[in-house]
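Researcher: Let's try something more involved. This one mixes different molecule types, so please make sure each is placed in the same coordinate frame as the others.
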Amino acid sequence: MNKVLSVQKLSKSFGGLAAVTSVNLELFQGELVGLIGPNGAGKTTFFNLLTGIYMPEKGSIELHRGSEVFSLQKRKPHDICRLGVARTFQNIRLFRDLSVLDNVRTAMNKNLKYGLFPALFHTGTYQKEEEELVEKSMELLKIFDLESKASELAKNLPYGDQRHLEIARALATDPVLLLLDEPAAGMNPAETSQLTRTISWIRENFDLTILLIEHDMSLVMSICERMYVLDYGLMIAEGTPEMIKKDPRVIKAYLGEDLHA
Amino acid sequence: MGQFLQQVLNSISIGSIYALIALGYTMVYGIIRLINFAHASVYMLGAYIGYFAMTYFGLGFFPAILIAMVLCTIIGVLIEKIAYKPLRNATRIAVLITAIGVSMLIEYGMMFFVKANVRSYPPMTGFLTKTFTLGSMTITTQQILILVVTIVLMVILQFVVRTTRIGKAMRAVSQDRDAAELMGIDVNSTISFTFAIGSALAGAAGVLVGVYYNSINPLMGMLPGLKAFVAAVFGGIGLIPGAVLGGYFIGAVEVFVAGYGNSMYRDAVVFAILILVLIIKPAGLLGKSTREKV
Amino acid sequence: MALLQKGWLKYILMLLVFVVGQVLVMTGILNDYLFATLTTLCINIILAVSLNLITGFTGQFSLGHAGFMSIGAYVCALITMRISTIPGFLLGVFAGACAAALVGFIVGLPTLRLRGDYLAIATLGMAEIIRIVFLNLEITNGAAGLNGVPQFVTWPWLFLFTAGTIHLISNFIHSAHGRACITLREDEIAAESIGIDATRYKVTAFVMGAFFAGIAGSLYASYFYFLRPTLFGFSRSIDILVIVVLGGIGSLSGSVIAAILLALISTYLQSFPELRMVFYAVALVVIMILRPQGLMGSKELSFDLLRNLGRSRKRRSS
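Model: All components are placed in one shared frame. Result:
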């Protein structure tokens, strides 16, 4: 299998508080991997380091595309997205006052071919490419059953649709690696199982690798083939769902907490 | 050397005034994250109140400055209650635009009532007219007065903020408004109190400027207001010691650029410093930087 | 029916405005005084629309628009005072706009990293620095200013530059690049996460805004033939901001409507300049408290909007 992402000894602290300490992680082409851990374990910080929102203090992040290797640790977020890493956010960050269609088609800007002149004078190049953008966006929206709501404002969508739209927006950037930050947060069991199916479908139909943060163990256990467990910023375990279930450190750190709660 | 010391002395006087105004900016910013443009207008009103108290009521310097401080306190609290409080949950830009509006309203409203012409403060009497010579330096009583009044006000401020209940509430609200509210602190009255203190200091600064420069006009607040804000940013906005440090620094820059460079570029240098500080260390000299949580 | 398509209607409307204006000028109904008001109005529209691109659409709060205007005005004045012909005038407008855009680029690149009110104060500082520089330069004749700038502005030029500015900025906003700018206003972190280079688009919007403000300044110089640094102070920037805020942050037609409205009001208040400023101030505060999104919000005046309005009115009456 081809390696897609390799993270080595990644560390970040905030004002003396270690948020992520010497974390290693590897992802291979086409995998669906879960990243779990109790609240405050550093999962979202880890995503923010991968996507350039935070600068790592130590360690390396490498993205493999074919034979090329890009190191991500000193790049800006938009640059990292251009290299093929897309993400969603734990607390949905849609462009709330833009239409559903605009949310998706702005995410296609990185492959935009026309420049400032066609934009100012609405030339033929502009017309042609704009039509293509709408077409591609509608195709993507169809996957999430959102094409009939294309002209609605994002903020007026129901919660579940907003989560879906955020995933559609991330896919519109044409990623090789998709990072999903608690996509099922706030969903009911029916919505969660619908989402689970969608995620599996995306993995099969788009040529990409998915890393999924989830607080809810059952979802991750059911669809991920491999998982990582983060606790107090340390990667305490890695393996298949069966191995993780039996790992005493995980039970102590994660399940233990849940059992007492 | 003599000239240099004289310049230092002048910077201390001007710096004191900037520091007094900057304190109001910094405290209000610390508590509601607003650049209170209207603060400079309150300073202008302070100067006019002092002028009217001395000219029409024949009061001395000390009663005049006290009256100015009291009235400015009331005005500052009213501005907050009428213009800013309804916007507590609005965007920061909306509140900023409102602040600009309030400031223009006060300045041009004042221009309408008292006309745009420059007025002179009445001449000082008694011991306030004396000057001292120290080597080649000349020290006026007004300069000593400015420094003494500033120090006294800062000591009182420090005492209030550090030891009193309301001072502690102010610090708590500026750290985390929601948490402070949950702990039973009355956030609204704490914000009002912050405006009250800041406005009192601005009122005092207004009277001191009137006495020192001897001339006032309705738009006198604009430029010093901006420079005092620069001072607050320089020291680290939200920090009381930062405002004092920044005030004296900006005062010194201004006096020395005028004294040794080109006085015409005095204000340009101050604004260039502002832009540099914002680019290099936006949290200011004494501040720590923070990032938005994602 | 093709003629009734939205795109065509826009051009027909523009042509109509031009022809009506031209007739009014030729018949002398638009006397010198009214023409001066019209010129001010057009300049304010250009300024407001260009500031709206920066503040309304891209979400970058700028308090220094008068600074860019002054650069355009001085550069155009200096050129037309030497080459006093129509090509000289056009060269002056173009050079003025480019000079403003260049300064916009130099200032924008470092300062646009700042957020919200910090950017506001930095742009304010920049405008003050520009004003002080003009106050001290020999070539601009310092505080006394430039007098006797040749007058070239006529209705066709005025119309061309105003309609052109609105048209180009509107086109830009309705392009992928314009939408990228709007995402920055909405959520910068999300925008970066979908590959939008925030700095690049902020600088683009800022430079474009400065360019058109430079055109407005050039027109000002070439009509009012007299320039002084005090004309381009903080209160001029506020004037422009009031138009943008009143019309609606993120609405081009709102800016145009607000500019017309304020032109009417200032014509009535012209003998009381202090009252005009007091009125502006009250307008700002009242809008922010009662209707912070402005008259138009982020909506545009369009035939769809009018139709919808008609429909909802009918619904209400039935």
